[in-house]
Design a protein that fits this description.
Among the domains are: 169 residues, Fumarate Reductase Cytochrome B subunit (Up-down Bundle); 34 residues, no CATH class. 65% of the residues lie in helices and 0% in strands. Helix 4 packs antiparallel against helix 5 and helix 5 packs antiparallel against helix 7. The radius of gyration is 25 Å and the shape is elongated.
Length: 304
């Protein structure tokens, strides 16, 4: 494949990733308001979050100011992000593989940031000692990320095959996702550990992407790793791995959303629009005919 065509393919895959990621993220953010239940303790509650209480316990709560704690909320989030606290508590057997898998991903995100900085520095001709440090730390951070990610992905893949309880809920797509990530991790780990001057090759490739310059020749394993990484990025927004975006809304817009509905407010208008939608459920007990809306069905008399 010629250099210009290869560069165009790289740009095409990156464009698919960016466009699809933005579109899906916006769609997730614009989903309708959820069914508001008291699902879990809300850590932003300043004094009641520790036992799952709520400001609704207060007599005439609507007359009193809300007391919220950003620190408590951040502590809860960091425990979940950095240590997968909920998985440790509810499925510890899976945690032993999922934790290194996620830590590996975190390290690779950090390595990607270092890679972009280093490529940008190379593109504009910055060669000071401070940029040389990037060349030292990039293979260390990336190598650790690849090894941890590979161990976690392999463990998760084997668990889904060997554990009957996991096997029955593991779809072919979920298995493919883990296999693709495992291939990315393994090729990356092999490239970092075997290719001489791997950082120089990587930064030259990054410089070519940033400047639309000629694509460099890379050792085979590094070329395979770059190709798999770009394919994975283009595939990512279309997969269930977008859960890392959806998870923010799951917590902040569903589990922790305890804002009261105010008369004339935006939430009241949104809920009213949803209640006005016609219902077409086929279940006979609902009595939906496509003409009744949710209010009609909720208020109709049920025959005895």
């Amino acid at each position: 494949m010629s250099g210009p065509i290869l560069l165009a393919v790289c740009y095409g895959l990156l464009a698919v990733f960016v466009a699809a990621f933005v579109v899906r993220s916006v769609r997730i953010a614009r989903l309708p308001v959820h069914l508001r239940w008291e699902l879990s303790p809300i850590p932003k509650e300043k004094t009641r979050g520790r036992y799952g209480g709520s400001y609704l316990e207060e007599y005439e709560w609507w007359k009193k100011p809300r007391e919220e704690s950003l620190v408590s909320e951040l502590v809860y989030m960091l425990k979940e992000i950095l240590f997968l606290k909920a998985l440790w508590e509810h499925n510890r057997r899976l945690w032993w593989f999922s934790y290194p898998f996620h830590v590996g991903l975190y390290l690779l995100v950090l390595a990607a940031a270092v890679f972009v900085l280093g490529s940008g520095a190379a593109a504009v001709g910055l060669t000071g000692p401070e940029w040389g440090i990037l060349r030292v730390w990039l293979p260390v951070v990336a190598g650790a990320g690849y090894v941890l990610g590979a161990l976690g992905a392999l463990g998760l893949l084997v668990s889904r095959i060997a554990d009957p309880k996991l096997r029955v809920v593991s779809t072919p797509v979920a298995m493919f996702n883990l296999a693709l990530l495992l291939a990315v991790f393994v090729t990356g780990a092999v490239a970092v550990s075997t290719v001489t001057g791997v950082v120089g090759h990587a930064l030259t490739f990054g410089k070519a992407l940033l400047t639309a310059g000629p694509m460099p020749a890379m050792p085979g394993i590094l070329a395979w790793h770059a190709a798999l990484t770009l394919v994975f990025l283009a595939y990512l927004p279309f997969s269930q791995m977008m859960h890392f975006v959806a998870k923010y809304f799951t917590y902040h817009e569903v589990r922790w959303d305890d804002e009261p509905m105010k008369q004339g407010g935006s939430m009241e208008r949104e809920v009213q629009q949803l209640l006005d939608q016609p219902v077409t459920w086929a279940a006979p007990h609902v009595g939906a005919d496509g003409g009744k809306n949710w209010v009609d069905i909720a208020t109709q008399e049920v025959p005895r």
